[in-house]
Amino acid sequence: MTQSTHGSPHRLHAAIIMDGNGRWALARGLPRLAGHRAGAAALTRTVEAAPDLGIGVLTLFAFSSDNWRRPPAEVAGLMQLLAEHLRSETGRAVENGVHMEVIGRRDRLGGELAAAIAEAESATAAGARLHLRIAVDYSGRDAIAEAVRQAAHAGLVCRECLEEQLGPPVDLLIRTGGEQRLSDFLLWECAYAELIFSRRMWPDFDALDLEAAVRQFHARQRRFGGVPAAPLSPDLPGHGPGHQRNGAVVTGAWLD
Q1: Are 65 and 223 in contact (CB under 8 A)?
Q2: Domain segments of the chain: what residues?
Q3: Are strands 55-64 and 98-103 parallel, antiparallel or unpaired?
Q4: DSSP secondary structure, 205-232, as one string
């Protein structure tokens, strides 16, 4: 089990930038929204696999505050898809002990999506196996600015106060689709996250990809600015001959 900053075991907080839906669709001669629908299936696969890989908190980047710049038809389709997905997955989340939460602004969301969010959060509030956070109309810079505003209003501007406002620190950040940037996602929370960038488009991402990323995470030594106590052991997860994926060995190559 991974060690926290204070040396005690804890379940991982993994965050994923689910990128590549549009490119996946265009490469197949499909409309971009078809890629987003395929991406919703990948989201379900990932949520189902996460708890058994030691992930206790999973934060997924579904819609950036900057995504409002996209064509109106695509934005409307995405909002409809998000509402449909929340409603279709709520029952499964309850059965599997998943607590669903949406982070980001809500004042710009339509009534159907806002209602679906409220219903999903209420129905799954008791879930304790996995805390699933979905970022919608989210900006990391805006989240930090709001946390500072609230802390200043309370007269308690300090690191601990901001962390309480912003949420748990990220252990592992995965971005699919081949790009290598944070795109305004969980900027404060990712201060010491281990970053993994995958060429795999999000609709193709599955449980084995998530497992490979977690193995890569465990193969790294997190120092948090300190000095390593001892070199990494080749027996740690992620070392050795590699992990089998569909008959092929998965090492770091899939992440290049």
Answers
A1: no
A2: 12-255
A3: unpaired
A4: --HHHHHHHHHHHHHS---TTS--SSPP
Task: Kindly report, residue by residue over 94-110, the tens digit of the pLDDT.
Answer: 999 999 999 999 999 99
The answer regarding whether domain 12-255 maps to CATH 3.30.420.250 reads: no
19 is catalytic: yes
Catalytic residue among 21, 52, 66, 67: 67
Contact 202, 24 (CB under 8 A): yes
Can you give the pLDDT at residue 165?
Answer: 87
DSSP element (H, E) containing 26: helix 21-27
Asked if 193 and 169 count as a contact pair (C-beta separation under 8 A), the reply is yes
Q: Which amino acid is at 64?
A: S
pLDDT tens figures, 80-96: 999 999 999 999 999 99
Residue recorded with tokens 């309480």: 164
The pLDDT tens digits of the residues spanning 151-210 come to 888 888 888 888 888 989 999 999 999 999 999 999 999 999 999 999 999 999 999 999
CA distances from 161 to 167, 181, 187 (A): 10, 27, 16
* Cα–Cα distance measured from residue 215 to residue 222, given in angstroms and rounded to the nearest whole number: 14
Print burial letters for 200-225: b (CB count within 10 Å at least 16), e (below 16). bbbbebbebbbbbbbbbbbbeeeeee
Strands (E), 140-193: 172-175
What angle separates helix 32-49 from helix 207-219, to the nearest 10 degrees? 60
> For the chain, how many residues are written?
256
